[in-house]
């Protein structure tokens, strides 16, 4: 997302620092279309689970109003299957907000079937291809240890 700056009065613009982090971790063997699809699905759940992450609606100079978006950047990482499994375990142990996308979801076409596909598999057996995590910056950093920024 774009730069996040705040007017401090007197014309000076200072960067806004968030004490939270939004991160998506993708498995490194996904096709480009899969990476985009998984990322979009994963971040879509954040606004309902953590409404504080959603900013104000946008408006252009002609007063056309647009939907609000996340108020802070979404950082995208990648890693091996084992990296996702470890991150998933750490995120749940830290009680962070987590969204998951499993390989089974590529074969479904609707929300009901998506939820059923995840429900059919135990937590430790999920074939994770992506996850989103939101929480305190330092906790998210620890969850993502071993992942690298997406190129």
What features would you describe in this structure?
The chain has 151 residues and is of the alpha+beta class. It is built from 5 helices and 9 strands. It has helices at residues 32-44, 46-49, 81-93, 111-119, 137-143; strands at residues 5-7, 13-15, 20-27, 58-59, 65-66, 74-79, 97-102, 128-136, 148-149. A 5-stranded mixed beta sheet has the order 7-8-3-6-9, sandwiched between helices. A two-stranded antiparallel ribbon has the order 1-2. Helix 3 (81-93) runs antiparallel to helix 5. The longest helix has 13 residues, at 32-44. The two termini are 15 Å apart. The model has no long low-confidence stretch (mean pLDDT 91).
Helices and strands in order, then pairings?
Layout: E1 5-7, E2 13-15, E3 20-27, H1 32-44, H2 46-49, E4 58-59, E5 65-66, E6 74-79, H3 81-93, E7 97-102, H4 111-119, E8 128-136, H5 137-143, E9 148-149
Parallel strand pairs: 3-6
Antiparallel strand pairs: 1-2, 3-8, 4-5, 6-9, 7-8
Helix pairs in contact: 3-5
How much is the average pLDDT? 91
Principal-axis shape = globular
Proportion in helices: 25-40%
Strand order of the largest sheet: 7-8-3-6-9
Given the helix and strand composition, which structural class is it?
Answer: alpha+beta
Low-confidence stretches: none
- Main sheet makeup: 5 strands, mixed
The fraction of residues in strands falls at 25-35%
**Helix-strand pattern, N to C?**
EEEHHEEEHEHEHE
Total beta strands = 9
* Oligomeric composition of the shown chains: single chain
Q: In angstroms, what is the radius of gyration? A: 17 Å
Distance between the termini: 15 Å
Number of helices: 5
């Amino acid at each position: 997302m774009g730069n996040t700056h705040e007017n401090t009065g007197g014309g000076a613009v200072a960067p806004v620092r968030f004490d939270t982090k939004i991160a998506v971790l993708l498995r490194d063997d996904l096709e480009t279309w899969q990476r985009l699809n998984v990322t979009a699905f994963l971040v879509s759940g954040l606004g309902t689970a953590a409404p504080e992450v959603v900013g104000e609606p946008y408006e252009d100079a002609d007063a056309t109003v647009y939907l609000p978006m996340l108020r802070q950047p979404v950082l995208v990482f990648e890693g091996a299957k084992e990296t996702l499994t470890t991150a998933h375990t750490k995120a749940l142990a830290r009680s962070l907000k987590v969204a998951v996308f499993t390989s089974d979801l590529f074969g479904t076409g609707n929300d009901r079937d998506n939820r059923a596909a995840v429900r059919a598999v135990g937590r430790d057996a999920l074939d994770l291809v992506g996850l989103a995590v939101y929480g305190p910056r330092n906790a998210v950093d620890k969850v993502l240890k071993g992942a690298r920024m997406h190129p």
